[in-house]
Amino acid sequence: MDFNDSAAEAAFRHQCRQWLTENATTKQRPDDVFGSDLSQTALLSQARAWQRKKAAAGFGAITWPTAFGGMGGTPVQEVIYRQEEAAFNVPTGIFNVSLGMVIPSLFVHGSEAIIRQHVEPALHGDSLWCQLLSEPGAGSDLGMVRTRAERVTDGRDGWLLNGQKVWTTLAQFADYGLVLARTDPQQGKFAGMTSFYIDMRSPGVQVRPIRQANGEAEFNEVFFNNVFIPDSQRIGAEGGGWKVTLTGLMNERLSIGGVMPPKLWQSAADLMLRSPGKHGHHTAMQDSRNRQKLSDLYLNAQGLWLLQCRGLTALGQGKEPGAELSIAKIVAARTLQDFAYFAMDLQGARGLLDAKAQAPGWELVQRLWFGSAGMRIAGGTDEIVKNNVGERILGLPPEPRTDKGKSFRELLDEGHSS
Ligand SMILES: Cc1cc2nc3c(=O)[nH]c(=O)nc-3n(C[C@H](O)[C@H](O)[C@H](O)COP(=O)(O)OP(=O)(O)OC[C@H]3O[C@@H](n4cnc5c(N)ncnc54)[C@H](O)[C@@H]3O)c2cc1C
């Protein structure tokens, strides 16, 4: 494994940096957060404009095949672009689900007509997609999805969708959603599901934002009441919904290595130098217990970087990255949460104040304090990821399964839920 850029990678890095310098403003500080003073609607419109600009310059989807408007680049190039972009004050993250999970599933499982109609507007930020998987009774175990799609019997070629999803990121702004629905309850729990895409403004779709502790509504409840879906909006085969879902989840796993804001430990060091110390210390930096925490943060960040390098090396050699991505997910989310709690503790009672009343750099702390717990849940909870590590990497005995060989209907009657 070589940690230095190859000549081609260095040239690509230069190309990214040059384009970003010409098209965006550099961050004043590494912990600047874009658009903290903007409403969600204004932030979305800025994110769309930035995505449009990136797509026009060829940076809109670095690893997508050129046939779909991507750059046809490598995962290493994707990381290089993200590293360079992190130094600029631009909106990031809004299109992660849309372009990182949903549309790549359409490439693999969608019909040609769907690809032709939807890929380009999504790439250019003109349409936003959400992922409608989790339900009140189906999260870690998506095999228990109860939202049902039934064939209509009035002569139209399509389905009627009824049920409820929850935690759907950005559904209130999404133009389209990829929905996983039960189409045959007599089949086993994974075999009887089918994927469809829906227009989020279809009659019968109701989106209710969930207000979070930080005042924002990042995710939503989504209700379906007799929503008509033409069969042409089916993605993949009838009963093939789990396959489509796995493609999206696999792409989510591949993108997870990049969740760690670069230079987080420097932000912590900066806060320690600026925070008053306890027990007679002038600053928090003089306290060896704080310096120990800073060392942990630094070592975790370096360890994550090395894990990411291993994952990228595997991808570069055409292999599936294995343990490193699962482990990176757990460590990254935990480290972000530890950082936020540590930074908050340094401030004492002042930590209760809103970021606007605090010194520069506090916006990131506040965001992480509220948001990092969610990172330990989204994309697989810590416990589920640990189960995977135990079974698939350490070869430990699998969890006992009581659902094998049973139809979804039988499981429902027995009262199973996730
Ligand atoms: C920020 C965020 C964004 C999200 N965005 C989306 C989205 O856009 N679309 C979408 O569909 N979903 C989304 N989700 C939902 C997310 O996928 C689920 O929250 C997650 O899969 C966990 O499911 P659950 O909340 O139903 O918890 P449950 O599955 O009910 O789990 C509850 C608890 O039980 C534990 N547990 C469950 N099963 C086991 C087991 N077998 N062994 C050990 N422990 C277990 C879990 O670890 C957890 O602690 C999002 C979630 C978050 C936090």
What would your notes on this structure say?
The protein has helices at 7-23, 40-57, 75-85, 96-109, 112-123, 241-255, 264-274, 288-316, 323-346, 362-375, 382-393, 408-413, and strands spanning 129-132, 148-151, 158-169, 176-182, 193-199, 205-209, 219-230, 234-235. The chain folds into three domains: 7-94, no CATH class; 129-243, Butyryl-CoA Dehydrogenase, subunit A, domain 2 (Beta Barrel); 260-380, Butyryl-CoA Dehydrogenase, subunit A, domain 3 (Up-down Bundle). Helices cover 44% and strands 13% of the residues. The two termini are 40 Å apart. It has 418 residues and is an alpha+beta fold. A hairpin with a 6-residue loop joins strand 2 and strand 3 (158-169). It is globular and about 75 Å long. Strands 1-4-5-8 form a four-stranded mixed sheet. The protein has a four-stranded antiparallel sheet with strand order 2-3-7-6, with no helix packed on it. The chain binds flavin-adenine dinucleotide. Flavin-adenine dinucleotide is lined by residues 97, 130-134, 139-140, 167-169, 219, 374, 377-378, 381, 383-384, 387, 399, 418.
